[in-house]
Amino acid sequence: MTDLIRLQPEGLAGPGSRFHIDAWGKAAVNLITHAHGDHARAGSAEYWCAEPCAAILRHRLGPEARIRPVPYREPVRLGDCWISFHPAGHILGSAQIRVEQASRVWVVTGDYKRDADPTCESFEPVPCDTMITEATFGLPIYRWDSAHEVTRRIVEWWQRCREDNVTALLFCYALGKAQRILAELARFTRDEVLLHGAVASLTQIYREQGVAMVPTRLVSDAEGPTEGRLVLAPPSAHRSPWMKRFRQVSTAFASGWMAVRGIRRRRGYHRGFVLSDHADWRGLLETVEQSRASRLLVTHGSSDTLARYLREVKGMKAEALTTHFGEEEA
Ligand SMILES: [Zn+2]
Ligand SMILES: [Zn+2]
Fold first, then answer.
1. What Cα–Cα distance (Å) separates residue 18 from each residue in 13, 22, 101, 142?
2. Do 157 and 256 reside in the same domain of the chain?
3. 230-269: buried (b, 16+ CB within 10 Å) or exposed (e) per residue?
């Protein structure tokens, strides 16, 4: 029997290429796991996504894109398949995509995490025969502390910046990570946080969907000096002309990559906070187990390592699958 989902030049494809999932080429129907740039690309005739993803996807693709929002867990017929979207816990609206045809079920996880996140619905295990899982952080060295603990460290650093009268410049992905930090901060403070424009527009979409966060303001609208204030900006703004507006800064990067020795220094940040929207090693293994899948296809990141571990240690049918998914932002 041929695989239900196969690798085509445009991306992961369903039977007869009737639909694709997170296509990197042009698709007739492009099922989107979430709105990060490496998964939601322009050029498809039609996009289907989980309902809470639609506004963010619209922001990314523009007013012309044809977008069909589908409520979580609601099966929809597509050709001879049933399709449904299930919470992935990665960012607002992120979904695993379940594809059922006759008696077989495949799940494409997209990006996911198992830790709590006040900005989105928690990951739900979806039983299947074959799972295509991501493995961005698929090495045993990756083991996350709780977001609450990491946020406590961010608040301490911000406090030190106040005492030193410097601007606390925290870089993070503009979609998902920034809003998660703003929501986690609300458990510690009601102080206003300043935002780079790219972060502000996405934060507004989260607010419109009812996500509670600390008060925010565009950095260009800030009254008075920014020293002692916390500013959130995307990594692309680091060392850009945008930074000239600040006098004395302490820079930090919030990312799972900060767990890797040397990356913080190489990228030139003063501080690193290990905060990821992907599953850590334990989360990946737990998810594989809970899926009850008999076959695993592993993509995105350390796919070879995880696939080999599942084969050699767990005795499972597992192989790496090469896709075009990468970092959330170039
Ligand atoms: Zn992502
Ligand atoms: Zn990704």
1. 8, 14, 13, 37
2. yes
3. bbbbbbebbeeebeeebeebbbbbbbbbbbbeeebeebeb
Domain that holds residue 88: 6-142+278-320
d(C-alpha 18, C-alpha 255), whole Å: 36
Q: Which ligand is nearest to the CA of 120?
A: 1
Looking at the fold, whether 136 and 168 belong to one and the same domain comes out as no
User: Could you tell me the distance, in angstroms and rounded to a whole number, from the CA of residue 137 to the centre of ligand 2?
Assistant: 11
CA of 1 to the centre of ligand 2 (A): 29
Estimate to the nearest angstrom the gap between the alpha carbon of 167 and the chain centroid. 27
- Is the pLDDT at 110 greater than 90, yes or no? yes
Taking the centre of ligand 2 as the mean of its atom positions, its distance from the CA of residue 299, in whole angstroms, is 10
**Per residue in 45-57, pLDDT tens?**
999 999 999 999 9
Question: For position 329, what pLDDT does the model report?
Answer: 60
Q: Compute the distance from residue 162 Cα to the ligand 2 centre, in Å.
A: 35
Measured CA to CA, the distance from residue 15 to residue 180 in angstroms comes to 37
Tell me how many domains the chain contains: 2
pLDDT one-digit tens code per residue, 280-305: 999 999 999 999 999 999 998 899 99
Q: Measured in angstroms, how far is the CA atom of residue 328 from the centroid of ligand 1?
A: 5
Residue range 138-195, pLDDT digits in tens:
999 999 999 999 999 999 999 999 999 999 999 999 999 999 999 999 999 999 999 9
Q: CA-CA distance, 265 to 271, in Å (whole number)?
A: 9
Per-residue confidence (pLDDT) for residue 323, from 0 to 100: 87
Q: Residue 295's pLDDT is what?
A: 97
240 and 206 share a domain?
Answer: yes
**Cα of 21 to ligand 1 centre, how many Å?**
14
C-alpha 34 – ligand 2 centre gap (Å)? 9
Say yes or no: 11 and 127 in one domain. yes
As a whole number, the mean pLDDT across the chain is 96
Tokens for 97? 């995509």
The structure's pTM equals 0.97
- Which bound ligand lies closest to the C-alpha atom of 300? 2
CATH code where residue 98 lies: 3.60.15.10
